[in-house]
Amino acid sequence: MDKTWEEAPPLFATAARCFVLEVLKKRNAYFVDLFVRLSNKVAIELYKKLGYVIYRQIVDYYTGERDEDAYDMRKSLSRDPEKKSMIPLTHPVHSRELD
Questions:
Q1: b or e along 61-79 (b: 16 or more beta carbons within 10 Å of the residue's beta carbon)?
Q2: What angle do CA 67, 45, 93 make, to 5 degrees?
């Protein structure tokens, strides 16, 4: 298989994340967050290196063929210079409690 096609999804995902970050900065957002399966250790470590923290655990976030909790990983933007939006919660939250 052509290497270009194997690399396209991760490159596209990275470009999409960069675009979303820029839009949120322009809209003066406080933070950006993303949800990651607890089992996805590679992604969790990558996002930590990019400045995200584990803000909270979401119980039953993923359902279907493979039910699993998720981490809500959060990164403060320039509107939150004190990074108050990144202070982790001390308890899990159920997915039905999300806005």
A1: bbeeeeeebbbbbbbbbee
A2: 40
Q: Would you say 55 and 97 are in contact if contact means Cβ atoms under 8 Å apart?
A: no
pTM above 0.90, yes or no: no
Cα atoms in the 13 Å half-sphere on the side-chain side of 80:
15
Task: Tell me the fold of 30-97.
Answer: Aminopeptidase (3.40.630)
Residues 10-58 pLDDT 10s: 555 566 566 666 666 666 788 888 899 999 999 999 889 989 999 999 9
What is the C-alpha separation between 8 and 23, in angstroms, rounded? Answer: 22
